[in-house]
Amino acid sequence: MNVSRSGYRVFCANSTSACTELAKSITERLGVELGKSVVFQEADAETRVDVRESVRGQDIFIIQTIPRDVNTAIMELLVMAYALKTSCAKNIIGVIPYFPYSKQCKMRKRGSIVCKLLASMLAKAGLTHIITMDLHQKEIQGFFNFPVDNLRASPFLLQYIQEEIPDYRNAIIVAKSPSAAKRAQSYAERLRLGLAVIHGEANHSESDMADGRQSPPLSRTTPGHTGLELPFLYVIFAVLYLSVMMAKEKPPITVVGDVGGRIAIIIDDIIDDVEDFVAAAEILKERGAYKIYIMATHGLLSAEAPRLIEESQIDEVVVTNTVPHEVQKLQCPKIKTVDVSMILAEAIRRIHNGESMAYLFRNITVDD
């Protein structure tokens, strides 16, 4: 029972059954009850939070998993954090296994670094610490002005490979792109397996998206010339400009490494839109791989992902329960789940007791 002498409370920032499942698993491991609160939407879609027990002077842990409606989930977290702050909680620690907007952590032309904005909003709402897992870029921790514990799911995924994949010694770890090679290499080294890298892209990256800065200069009329009669030097400049700014042609998809007669295990941190994974699986099948697994920490599995996975050459998709995906599992039996509530519960216990977190990173490599 959550009695006051325990010194901490664990709340869930979402009242839906799909999102409270992870919170209940964590509290069961901690031996406490989930804090009493109600989170709901008003008729006009405003978020309202009602905390129904005293939190004065306590360490408060808010568990928030991110469902499909990411913006509503963020507002729930912000409103609950502020409600606990104004209720005189001692420390407010956000347990956010999948940190939203983590892909928007770099400046893209005239865009913005939304991840930095979210970090500032969380601090303003009252959070004093965050526990998360496998940030899309580790440098995101620098956006916060309070401590961030970025846990890793790799020990759980490595254990799954060793225990659930028959003949895993005949497997090869595959990086879906050169940018994912470091993460894949860390898995390959710990499993003592070979490494393959898929090179080339089937579609254009964000850096090749059309932008106003790639547009040719507007034609200007000069005295003595019509709009169609451009000066010779101006024509040369326009041709050079277009040739330089024209997007580079992507190389064809190739596989660096021998996957023939082996089990291919593709490693990544997020699996959302699965078109790239499906294309990678087809290439690996053509190169002779006889089984294809995909291992990822965060299974967002948006849009038509379950159907595409079911119809593809992929044999199994293994993700953790950082994001609720029970509906997707019903649509596609190839999707399997690894429970990471144990490490999240241990992180909560150690932070509350003031113990070192180094034990939770004992089997983690630099590139993981």
From TrEMBL:
One term under GO cellular component: cytoplasm
GO BP of this protein: 5-phosphoribose 1-diphosphate biosynthetic process; purine nucleotide biosynthetic process
Keywords, alphabetical: Nucleotide biosynthesis
Extract the InterPro entries matched here. Pribosyltran_N, PRTase-like, PRTase_dom, Rib-P_diPkinase
Membrane spanning stretches: none
Its domain of life? Answer: Eukaryota
What SUPFAM superfamilies does the record point to? Answer: PRTase-like
> Is the keyword Nucleus assigned to this protein?
no
Q: Which SMART domains match?
A: Pribosyltran_N (SM01400)
Q: Which Pfam families match?
A: Pribosyl_synth (PF14572), Pribosyltran_N (PF13793)
Any idea which GO molecular function terms this record carries? ATP binding; magnesium ion binding; ribose phosphate diphosphokinase activity
> Any idea where the Ribose-phosphate pyrophosphokinase N-terminal domain is?
15-126
State the family it belongs to: Belongs to the ribose-phosphate pyrophosphokinase family.
- Briefly, what is this protein's role? Seems to play a negative regulatory role in 5-phosphoribose 1-diphosphate synthesis.
Under what name is this protein listed? Answer: Phosphoribosyl pyrophosphate synthase-associated protein 1-like
Which organism is this entry from? Answer: Gouania willdenowi (Blunt-snouted clingfish)
